[in-house]
C-alpha cells in the first residue's frame, strides 16, 4: 500500500474503526445465519491486533475463475517472516482454489502468494485510486 494511503488511513482512525465494526458485524450476522459462511480471521499478540484475513464469494464473474476470492490478508510489518501470513492464509483458504488482487509493485506480497500456489493470470484493474491491481489465481 502506498505510504500516502496508509498515512491518510492513520489520520482517520475513528472512521476506519467504524467501517471495520460494520464489516465484522455483517460477517458475524452471516455466520449466525449460515455456519458455513466465511469468517474473518484475526491474529493478536499481547500488543493487540497483528494481522487479519478474509475471503468470500468472488466479485469477478468470469467462466473458469474460482468462486472464492481472498479479499484481505494483512500482517503488521514487525511480524513479517514469522509465518503469521502463512497461518492466516491457511486458516482462510486451506487448499481451496481462489483468486485475489494484489497491488502492482508489491513484490513481497506477490512472492508470498506465488509460494502458496497463486499465479498472475494477466488481468489488471486500473480503476482503484491507490494504483494498479493484478489478479492472481490458485486452481
Automatic annotation (TrEMBL):
Residues forming the N-acetyltransferase domain are 1-139
SUPFAM superfamilies assigned: Acyl-CoA N-acyltransferases (Nat)
Q: Which domain of life is it from?
A: Bacteria
Q: Note the InterPro entries from the entry.
A: Acyl_CoA_acyltransferase, GNAT_dom
* Protein name according to UniProt: GNAT family N-acetyltransferase
Q: Which organism is it from?
A: Nocardioides cremeus
